[in-house]
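Recap from last week: sequence in, structure out.
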Amino acid sequence: MRYFVLRLVHASATVFGVISLLFVLIHVIPGDPVSAILGDQASSADRLALRRSLRLDRPLFEQYVAYLGDVVDGSLGHSFRAQTRSVWSLVAEALPHTLRLATAAMLIALLLSLPLGSLAALRRGSRWDEAASSLALFGLAVPNIWLGPLLILLFGVWLRVLPLPGDDPSAAALVLPALTVGAALTAVLTRQTRAALADILSEPYIRAARARGISEPVLVFRHALRNALLPVMTVAGAQLGALLSGTVVAEKIFERPGLGTLFLEAFLDRDIPVVQGCALVVAITYVAVNLAIDLLYGVVDPRTRLA
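Predicted structure tokens:
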């Protein structure tokens, strides 16, 4: 219980730090929201009136306090472009699409990386190990902005087995974006699974279990792989930030709605509250997932719970 409370306090402090850092960074970036909304031909009176309505004429500290109040009441402020809409309402519309894409990418990464990494660890030095390592290297080397169009060209244009961007809202349209976002994560988890499982298989208790006649499948899946999952879970949680940021590129390439699309459009429009809200939701999600992974350690490995 004490560990849970300490982790919760640490997570809360992290979120508060992220809120403050986001506010500072957003206001340091060059650009004027009033000019972005009204254009260069607007009169000085119109600019002044809009600046007052957006509370941009106030001192920076007052804007920060007002921003904290918007975070506390849950609205996250109001959009500069659509002042009748709260930022949370815009984020709530876009977030399910991004979570669906991120979840699909994570599932693809786990379903591919765990078998590939396990096979590479069990067949170290073989062609299986070389093939798994080559695939992992390919996933790390290829950027999303290049992999996405390549997958569209291969599976959507040449083979015509998957829908093109914007053609089909069904689950089939989620396959290519999820592969694009999950490719790098698959590579990272494959290498981590191989390294962790190879270390576990060299432990004395594994050799002792083999000497007692325990079958190889039981030894690998019930004992070795379960212990190897701890570092894999840690890496998966740490890579969540990269996974969510990767959805920005994928949503743009595949013409999908989501938090990445909302963030990019708001950033180009200098819609400061929406940019802050999107980044804050991603940060809170990242912290919450890492907190959940810490608590799951005790389920996967009882030794951590006893400690």
